[in-house]
Amino acid sequence: MKIGIALSGGGVLGAAHIGALKEIEKANIKIEYVCGASAGSIIGGIYSSSGIEGLEEFYNEISNKKGFSPNTRFQIQSPSRFFSELENTVSKYLEPKIDRPQIPFGAVATNLETGLPELLQEGDKLKNIMASCAYPGVFPIVRISSKLYVDGGIAVNLPAEFVKNECDFTIGSSIYSLPKIKKSYFDKNSRTRVLSRSLEIIENRLSYYQENYCDFCFKPQIKNLKWFHFWKLQEARDAGEANAKKQINDLVQLLNR
User: Fold this and answer.
1) pLDDT value at position 244?
2) How confident is the model at residue 120 (pLDDT cuts 50, 70, 90)?
3) Nearest alpha-carbon partner for 98 in 61, 64, 56, 54
4) Which terminal residue of the chain, N or C, has fewer Cβ atoms less than 10 Å from its own Cβ?
5) What is the structure's pLDDT at 84?
6) How far apart are CA 85 and CA 76, in angstroms?
7) In 3D, which of 102, 104, 81 has the Cα closest to residue 5?
8) Helix (H/G/I), strand (E/B), else coil: 89
9) DSSP 96
10) What is the DSSP secondary structure assignment for residue 193, as one 8-state letter?
11) What is the CATH number of the domain that holds 159?
12) Residue 83, domain extent
């Protein structure tokens, strides 16, 4: 039985995927296909190339950068520069490990002209990942050949349907929970917050419908965290690991039926 995993978008919340992947490996479940959208494409791309070891190295480097520490906060002053620095960091961990075969991988990005999600599996892996992460209005559009791409999470935040097409058993890791908020939240910077909340609702619903393609889905409840809360990276990872430990036995039992 061919098993694949779909990793959702969610910005900094993507750190929660690490817990699911670690528990899957501990349970000796062999993943033969990985597909990610947005932040999920970064985690999935690194995992498919260099495994948990590569993910840990990437996480350690990112968490030591300015703004990702629990004791600091920062805003993206230059989105293009931030995007370029992220690209340079990700590129270091896409080199395959000598003793570990690469896992087939796909990144989902949204074609800006057609409005449809596209599975990017061929060509430049790093560029495919960055196309999947090009959050509109924040990061620059990515051009591949003659096509223009933005964040994959805009069209399909949990790319489970693409995994379903490739595998016999589809595991999902969906991190885009939708916490309730008070009306007073919109009193300050209301336009920006209304837009942000609206996008959260859209992406949450997209993930919800994609869960129908999953045979099993990890769903950590990451409350009060948003995709741009970079300084809460560790909190997102901890929530993902705690949830994965609770759910892994259910997955093992399902696979052993």
Assistant:
1) 94
2) very high
3) 54
4) C
5) 86
6) 12
7) 104
8) helix
9) P
10) H
11) 3.40.1090.10
12) 3-256
Q: What is the DSSP letter of 104?
A: P
Q: What does the alpha-carbon distance between residue 147 and residue 145 come to, in Å, rounded to a whole number?
A: 6
Dihedral sign (CA 49, 55, 60, 62): positive
Distance from C-alpha of 154 to C-alpha of 108, rounded to nearest angstrom: 10
Q: How far is CA 239 from the centre of its chain?
A: 15
Phi and psi at residue 203, in whole multiples of 5°? -70, -35
The larger pLDDT score, comparing residue 90 to residue 138, is at: 90
Give the torsion through C-alpha atoms of 80, 86, 88, 90, to 10 deg: -150
Average pLDDT estimate for 128-138: 92
CB atoms < 10 A from the CB of 124, how many? 11
Residue 198 pLDDT greater than 70, yes or no: yes
- Tell me if 215 sits within 8 A of 254, measured CB to CB: yes
Q: Which is it for strands 105-111 and 33-37: parallel, antiparallel or unpaired? A: parallel
What one-letter code names the amino acid at 160? A
Widest CA span in the chain: 55
Q: CA nearest 72: which of 185, 234, 184, 212?
A: 234
* Residue 41, CA atoms < 13 Å, CB-side half-sphere: 32
Whether the CB-CB separation of 204 and 156 falls below 8 Å is answered with: no
Active site residues: 38, 151
List the structure tokens of 178: 């939708």
Instruction: For residue 240, count CB atoms less than 10 angstroms from its CB and return exposed for 0-12, middle for 13-18, buried for 19 or more.
Output: buried
Total domains in the chain come to 1
- For residues 61-72, average pLDDT: 63
Q: Are 116 and 108 in contact (CB under 8 A)?
A: no
